[in-house]
Design goal:
With 253 residues, the chain is mostly helical. Helix content is 79%, strand content 0%. Helix 6 runs antiparallel to helix 7, helix 7 packs across helix 9 and helix 7 packs across helix 10. It is globular, with a radius of gyration of 26 Å. 31% of the residues are buried. It holds the Pfam family DUF4126. It comes from Ottowia beijingensis.
Length: 253
């Protein structure tokens, strides 16, 4: 700052203006006080997240993990790495370059796999055992470093949100895949890509607004699952067959 003031004084000299040393010192003190005031006002905001912001982040991590896990991990880690949001201690691992690289790579793989009819359903089936536990772990990580009990509660709720989002996505895709054209599948996939970004942005920037939006999404999810009940049963049957529980029992001798 002092160097900048000196350069300004020298420039004024070249213009024929000769401020006194007292004037320059006064200007420097005023600028310094203004900077300190701004810094003092901003520092408490960026130093840590308040409780509504933490709750919104945990809910967003759980919900969005149900349909775009790798995007959620990458976006959260990238925002923390860039200093856009102060991540809780339990989530700072997401900022590690190795985690960012791995989640970024899987984000790209999922982006293309999710655009191919029936491959998307297969991808969802495989990730049914990954997204829900991951959503629970990410939500728990928001509070787990400070309180084991609060972290457990957040994990349970985060896992429930992830399961709801996953069921809605998988059921909707099962219904869409009955159509021979791929356009509807692409539109649904791009919508989910954008939704993941919007969910994380809202949760970190406008926690209260995100809470309202999340409540609306939960209601819509329940309605969709009721309307598409036939396809939900199809998804459950495919999951049961995939994990072997649907295999016929051996006949007795």
């Amino acid at each position: 700052m002092e160097d900048l003031i000196q350069q300004l004084v020298q420039w004024l000299h070249t213009m024929g203006i000769h401020p006194s040393h007292e004037t320059a010192a006064a200007v420097g003190d005023a600028v310094g006080q203004a900077g300190a005031a701004v810094g003092g006002a901003v520092a408490p905001v960026v130093a840590k997240m308040d409780m509504p912001a933490l709750i919104a982040l945990a809910a967003a991590l759980g919900w969005a993990s149900g349909f775009r896990l790798y995007a959620v991990v990458f976006l959260t880690g990238a925002m923390g790495y860039a200093g856009w949001i102060p991540l809780p201690e339990g989530l700072k691992l997401l900022m590690h370059p190795a985690v960012l690289t791995a989640s970024g790579f899987m984000l790209l793989v999922e982006f293309f796999a999710d655009k191919i009819p029936w491959i998307d359903s297969l991808w969802d089936t495989v990730h049914s055992v990954i997204r829900i536990p991951a959503g629970a772990l990410l939500a728990a990580g928001v509070f787990g470093a400070d309180s084991a009990t609060t972290g457990l509660v957040a994990g349970i709720l985060g896992g429930s949100l992830a399961a709801t989002a996953f069921a809605t996505k998988a059921t909707t895709r099962a219904a869409i895949n009955t159509s021979p054209e791929p356009v509807s599948n692409w539109l649904a996939s791009f919508f989910e890509d954008g939704l993941a970004v919007v969910v994380m942005w809202l949760a970190t920037q406008y926690p209260v607004t995100f809470g309202i939006v999340l409540a609306v999404m939960l209601v819509l999810s329940v309605l969709l699952l009721i309307v598409l009940w036939k396809f939900l049963k199809l998804v459950v049957r495919k999951l049961r067959d995939f994990f072997g529980s649907g295999a016929p029992a051996p006949s007795s001798a």
